[in-house]
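Input record, target 12 of the design panel.
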């Protein structure tokens, strides 16, 4: 039976450490500040942005939630980002994904100053991750790697299989695993014989967005399973991940639960990187 990678408990521990850093920065006249841009009223996005705001405020940070209507123009959003780029009191800028389809998301993300891209998903930040020169890493991949390292799970030399190739998760987690000296395979909807590829993995990262898509019988005995999925299933009384948890748990050595695994770590890394930005680029206010 697998041991649980408890992201909720680990997040609590890390946030206590971040709070100490926040207190030191405040004593120097710098209050870490995160500005989150939400476009439209997608229920999941509204929930996530409110969770991020509350998490910031609990540890003494400032968090602004800037809401645009669903029909906001490209110019309106990009002008706001330029304004935030110039505001020295703002240390992190995050655009909640996804944005409405009529907007050019990549263009919007590219407007975020790289020094403030604490979500780590602009083309500049992803390029720097590819070059191993990043300031910030996409928060979910950063949370996943941090969790593996904090639990003492070896990454170097291991065979990692990432199922999914999104720019906010699949691709950056593959790059970050590669940076940590894993041998990485990325699988996707066009991959042939996916079960046999997953079966070879020492570390499986599920990031495909389909409920219980990865079956327990695909998992190699002793593998580490990281489930980054979060899916609502009609008729089910609880949300589920991308992995068939109960069956995978029987053969894996470690596994993340859903909820309580990867999710809390994502928000924690957003806090961590905003405070890192305040440390690197923050300017004390003159009283």
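The sequence produced for target 12 reads:
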């Amino acid at each position: 039976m697998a041991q649980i990678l408890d992201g909720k408990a680990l997040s609590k521990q890390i946030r206590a450490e971040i709070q100490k850093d926040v207190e030191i920065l405040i004593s120097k006249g710098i209050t870490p500040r995160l500005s989150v841009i939400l476009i439209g009223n997608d229920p999941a996005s509204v929930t996530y942005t409110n969770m991020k705001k509350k998490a910031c405020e609990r540890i003494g940070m400032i968090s602004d939630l800037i809401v645009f209507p669903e029909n906001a123009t490209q110019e309106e959003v990009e002008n706001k980002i330029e304004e935030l780029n110039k505001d020295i009191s703002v240390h992190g800028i995050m655009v909640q994904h996804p944005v409405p389809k009529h907007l050019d998301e990549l263009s919007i993300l590219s407007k975020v100053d790289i020094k403030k891209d604490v979500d780590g998903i602009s083309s500049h930040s992803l390029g720097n991750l590819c070059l191993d020169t990043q300031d910030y890493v996409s928060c979910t991949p950063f949370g996943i790697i941090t969790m593996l390292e904090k639990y003492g799970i070896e990454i170097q030399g291991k065979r990692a299989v990432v199922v999914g190739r999104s720019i906010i998760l699949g691709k950056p987690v593959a790059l970050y695993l590669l940076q940590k000296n894993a041998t990485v395979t990325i699988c996707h909807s066009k991959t042939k014989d996916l079960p046999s590829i997953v079966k070879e993995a020492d570390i499986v990262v599920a990031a495909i967005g389909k409920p219980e898509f990865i079956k327990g019988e695909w998992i190699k005995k002793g593998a580490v399973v990281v489930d980054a999925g979060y899916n609502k299933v009609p008729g089910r009384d609880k949300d589920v991940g991308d992995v068939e948890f109960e069956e995978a748990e029987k053969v894996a050595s470690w596994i993340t639960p859903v909820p309580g695994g990867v999710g809390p770590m994502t928000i924690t890394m957003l806090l961590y990187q905003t405070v890192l930005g305040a440390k690197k680029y923050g300017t004390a206010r003159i009283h």
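Residues 7-27 form the longest helix (21 residues).
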